[in-house]
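Sanity check. The docking grid for alpha-L-arabinofuranose depends on where the pocket ends up, so I'm generating a full predicted complex first rather than guessing from homology. Inputs follow.
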Amino acid sequence: MTHRFIPFLIALLGLSGTLRAQTPIYLHPDEAGEIIAPEIYGHFAEHLGRCIYGGIFVGEDSDIPNVRGFRTDVVEALRALQVPVLRWPGGCFADTYHWRDGIGPREDRPAIVNIHWGGVTEDNSFGTHEFLDFCELIGADPYINLNVGSGTVREASEWVEYVTASHKSPMTDLRRQNGREEPWDVKYWGIGNENWGCGGNMRPEYYTDLYRQFASYVRGPLYKIAGGPSSGDYNWMRVFMEGTQRQQWMVKGVSLHHYTLPYGWGKKVPATEFDEAGWARTLEQALEMDHLVTQHSAIMDQYDPEGRVHLIVDEWGTWYEVEAGTEPGFLYQQNTLRDALVAAVHLNIFNQHAERVKMANIAQMVNVLQAVVLTQEEEMVLTPTYYVFQMYQVHQGGRLLPVNLNSPRYTVGGEDLPALHASASMQGDTLHLTIANLDPNQAHPIDLRISDERFRQAHGRIITAPDMQAYNDFGQAEQVRLEDFSVPKPRKGSLSVSLPAKSVVHIALFP
Ligand code: AHR
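Predicted complex below; grid placement will be based on this.
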């Protein structure tokens, strides 16, 4: 080869990423352990902005194609996502919600003001029956959040009875009168939401006592979830765990809420306009979830070493400035490739903590915050986050496999992050590795070293785009979606592949 070809060769190798050192990733399929609760892939839908009205429910008389008032396009998209569980009616809305307003003939239901979200009129046309019907349509388990902040113990216990009881009683008679003979099978019940804030501004001591009272009268074989801390409020977790240590039979889960805000609550930034510093800062904030889950789990371990009480991350996601021209209280934001990486990081973290984290719910399902689906009149788009949930479906119910990975670093400005972030599981004979390359500039070559030579086939899928700001918009071809990704067959337990910059990749290995 003459010297004239050398720069060309270097450029070619550089483009394919093969000049960088390969990162070995060790996987031992026989170490597969904890079951990854499918509910980690859960969602959250609140009476907020256009999540319920317009996004999920348009009413039977709408020109938008619908099934009993539920948008057909949205139902189909969500069915395809295999949503395991859906939390409702809030959020902050839950602690203002009086469930009797949302049952019976729609024309008789009172219109109220949604005090937290834009002060708009809530006509209560979507209530208990509609929510449970919607869950059946999309195949999700319902998770209902009771009102502690402004509701009574009686109101909460009667709602549970109305929904779940089969014996004859005033509540079951009322349900039958409203057209539902059989009870619904609703297992998950939340007792209050953010009771340190919009749910009553309580101290943890006071909430813990209230929890004990409400949980005493909310009866049945239910999975009761306490309103837990915000982000790093470890005191709330400690007080609650200590205050219920002798009543652990009445607590199945404690919630944790944490949002990804690149620059904090005081400086919300646009969802689609950002530079590399904004990219890195957001991902660094997303990685914070690992620290929070680790710290909260350590506190829970002190009071519950057997892991009977689960950590339920029932609100997580990015929170940006609302889109220009939209109502600030509606929290409507676009969703880019950056959000896809944020979702991948969170889902990897929840998988890694499968022992304690038994449910997580992205905020929110449609048209609010880090939504998986956006709608505009009769149009619908699937966001980059949607495709991450679709890619990660393979982990639902799988056995967590440790990923031994010493990641190269990605640094920019003051940020220093691991470039690669992964989780893995075994589903039967198939090994699933999901790995995000957080580095927006460099491909990173990896070498999978699997301690089992029986894996002879591989299949790959990828989510990426030329620009980190890429997003899917109405009336345009999709910029970000799930696509096939070519990976070689493993040979003698080894497989080398280069992970493109700013991508999320799934590699399935099977015999
Ligand atoms: O998801 C939006 C809001 O964020 C919820 O209503 C509340 O629980 C949280 O503060």
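Relevant for the grid: Confidence is low (pLDDT under 50) at residues 1-18.
Also worth noting: Residues 398 and 414 are 37 Å apart (CA to CA).
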